[in-house]
Amino acid sequence: MSSFEEAGTEETVTCLHMTFYHPCQGDKMMFRCLNFCKREQVRADEMPKFGRDSNVCRYNLMDTRVSRIQFSLQFYRKLNSSEFCFEIKNMSKKTKLIVDQTELGYLNKIDLPWKCIICFGDYQILAEIEEGESGDYFETHLHLAEVPILQERCLPSRQPIPENSISSSSFSSQGKNPMEIDENES
């Protein structure tokens, strides 16, 4: 047998991709302490924190409006499953954390969906989980967005759009009503 055949099977690693956006990043450089575009290993038993306190937080946001500890993540395996997940917990007493449409108050926590948007203040973070098998550690891979994430994802507007894709405001206000036309007519 060759050494290749005897080598252990390589485990894949769960990776949490996080894309950060803030409208004032160009001026205030609040993400200057984050290590972008390079994967970083985090031990599975560690709970990485995001916030402005560099003594406590692994990921620092340089902004006085951010809480000392804004939120934390916990990596875990689901009970009776081989699936790994992340739990996100709001650690800020002053600012609510919004994960997709779920609002988290202080010390509230939920499972992080495999793809979601995390918001607090003017911060927008797109989080995407790349599944892996290793239970010893996971990786984070941080990215910087040039445009707002909510705009980029083209999230549906709150106003319903009629099936025919014509809104009532499309008609002139001269009292004309829409006319039904047989699709075989020209």
Automatic annotation (TrEMBL):
Spans annotated as Disordered: 160-186
Positions of the FHA domain: 50-121
Keywords: Cytoplasm, Immunity, Innate immunity
A GO CC annotation given for this chain: cytoplasm
UniProt subcellular location: Cytoplasm
Gene Ontology terms describing biological process: innate immune response; positive regulation of canonical NF-kappaB signal transduction
CDD domains named among the record's database cross-references: FHA_TIFA (cd22714)
Family classification: Belongs to the TIFA family.
Protein name as annotated: TRAF-interacting protein with FHA domain-containing protein A
Organism: Chionis minor
